[in-house]
Design brief:
The complex is a heterodimer of chains A (129) and B (348). With 129 residues, chain A is mainly beta. Chain A is built from two helices and eight strands. Chain A folds into two domains: 48 residues; 81 residues, Beta Barrel (OB fold (Dihydrolipoamide Acetyltransferase, E2P)), CATH 2.40.50.840. In chain A, the strands form two sheets. Chain A has a five-stranded antiparallel sheet with strand order 6-5-4-7-8. The longest helix of chain A is centred in the first third of the chain and has 6 residues. Chain A starts with a helix and ends with a strand. Chain B is of the alpha/beta class and 348 residues long. In chain B, helix 1 crosses helix 2, helix 3 runs parallel beside helix 4 and helix 6 crosses helix 7. The longest helix of chain B has 20 residues. Classes of the chains: A mainly beta (129), B alpha/beta (348). Bound molecules: zinc ion. The site of zinc ion has 8 residues of chain A, from loops.
């Protein structure tokens, strides 16, 4: 991912900012411009909760090149308190002991480095609570 | 009155025991365990650094303060392991907590006292009335060269403090600094690991500056060691802070609550600030706390804190430092540690 896109996505990657439809109340993460339910274009910013539970996960053993050093690692669908589901890496966990339904919380982590000399990309990951 | 309105600490989960390091280098673990009073130290995961730990500690500080991050006027991160050589840590922290864009930002450096420097400046900015709140962080993911004595203690952690004028949980009664030019520990540009002057780091460096700062502030506030419930000093190992406390006339029970190094290691810029968070977790209204940092180079910042009645309302609003230290630990072997800390040379 090139730096400009990383920079544009800082509000959602750093602060979990989502968009809540003013028409029907549906929350979108990442934020959207048009509501998929009621087609409204009016949204308010809401911050997602930082705790949740694991819905499902998979272990990545052949990752994209910038994640090679981290493999194997877990990617999961996590339902945050409030009901919004996000896709997130599950860090600081024993891959053999992950359990559907287990409690997780969000932590701020390095996602990857753009090489030795490039920028460091930060964002959210989930860790066992 | 100015002082602390919110505080928080963060410690990575990974730990390595002194025995595990000693085994690799063929040294006597007991000489470190008994001689320096260190049992184990924290190790950051590969995706953690000074910035990520600062963000977590600050989330906890915000929970305890209950303030809107938009009202924070300054963010200062003190560290000797800022992830970038050029580009501030504070910009990422401020963005992550939602405190941008009306905010003053700078990274601080002064070996292990960069965190207390940030605390000092934040207090004065709030006192001057130029801002309502100011955020100070001390954090490090310190490295010791493989096989060096520092490798047994160099650890990772962060402490975060929000300073303000109202709703204080601890008032800054007095501050005092003591500094000379003393080359006891340094790292030149482009050098990966720091260098130190071995035994020279003790008497003329650590002890001289901490004692100078402690005596200076006690004289300024007209208090004696017996007036304090707690004292916390910089902790390069478990032994030095106990020794300097004794030399100053403090008793062991005044020192134990803030002593984290034997089970956490030396978190450099986070060291005495994290000890202060552990004390605030247990303190009661009207308790007096003496805190003295130490940074090689060399200097000490001293603070006298007086705990207020608000402390009991905030202690349980975020995880306590000793809970973080004692829960969810993950013991790793030297190989994993070397990989996590980038000590293994790989093919390009
Ligand atoms: Zn809608």
């Amino acid at each position: 991912m090139p730096s400009p896109r990383y920079w544009r996505e800082i509000p959602q990657r750093y602060r979990l900012e989502a968009s809540k439809c003013k028409g029907c109340g549906k929350v979108f993460f990442p934020p959207r411009l048009v509501c998929s339910s009621c087609k409204s274009r009016e949204f308010e910013m809401v911050k997602l909760e930082r705790e949740g539970k694991l819905i499902t996960y998979t272990i990545i053993r052949v990752p994209p090149s910038q994640f090679t050093d981290q493999s194997p690692y877990a990617m999961g669908v996590v339902e945050l308190n409030g009901g919004v589901k996000i896709l997130s890496q599950i860090a600081d966990c024993n891959l053999d002991k992950l359990e559907i339904g287990q409690k997780l919380r969000i932590e701020f982590r390095k996602i990857y480095n753009e090489g030795e000399a490039g920028i460091i990309c930060y964002g959210y990951k989930c860790v066992p609570a | 009155m100015v002082g602390i309105i919110g505080y928080g600490a963060y410690i990575p989960r990974n730990r390595i025991k002194v025995e595990e390091i000693a085994k690799v280098w063929g040294t006597d673990a007991n000489s470190y365990r008994k001689g320096l009073f260190v049992e184990e130290k924290s190790v950051p995961s590969p995706d953690q650094d000074t910035i990520t730990m600062s963000v977590e500690a600050t989330h906890y500080a915000l929970k305890r303060s209950g303030i809107d991050p938009q009202k924070i006027g300054a963010v200062y991160v003190g560290s000797e392991s800022h992830p970038y050589a050029v580009k501030p840590s504070g910009t990422v922290l401020a963005e992550a907590i939602g405190a941008t864009p009306e905010i003053h930002c700078a990274d601080y450096e002064f070996a292990c006292k960069a965190g207390s420097e940030a605390m000092f400046v934040c207090l004065e900015l709030v006192r001057s009335g130029s801002m309502e709140y100011a955020l100070a962080v001390g954090a490090d993911t310190s490295q010791g060269a493989p096989g060096d004595a520092l490798e047994y203690t160099a650890a990772a952690g962060a402490a975060s403090f929000i300073m303000g004028k109202d709703n204080l949980l601890a008032e800054a009664v007095e501050t005092y600094s003591f500094m000379t030019d003393t080359p006891d520990f340094w790292r030149r540009e482009y050098q990966y690991y720091p260098r130190h002057a071995s035994r020279f780091t003790g008497e003329p460096a650590y002890f001289k500056h901490i004692i100078g700062a402690a005596k200076g502030i006690l004289k300024k506030v007209k208090l004696e060691p017996k007036d304090f419930k707690y004292a916390v000093f910089h902790q390069p190992n478990g032994k030095f802070p106990l020794k300097v406390g004794k030399l100053l006339g403090f008793k062991r029970e005044q020192l134990d609550t803030g002593l984290l190094c034997p089970w956490m290691g030396n978190t450099y810029s986070g060291s005495s600030p994290m000890g202060l968070t552990a004390i605030l977790d247990e303190a009661k209204p009207d308790d007096l706390i003496l805190m003295v940092s130490y940074g090689s180079g060399a200097g000490s910042d001293a603070f006298v804190w007086k705990v207020t009645s608000r402390i009991t309302e905030v202690q349980d609003k975020a995880p306590k430092t000793k809970e973080i230290l004692n829960n969810n630990k993950n013991y790793i072997e030297y190989g994993t540690y070397a990989k996590y800390r980038g000590k293994i040379r790989k093919a390009e």
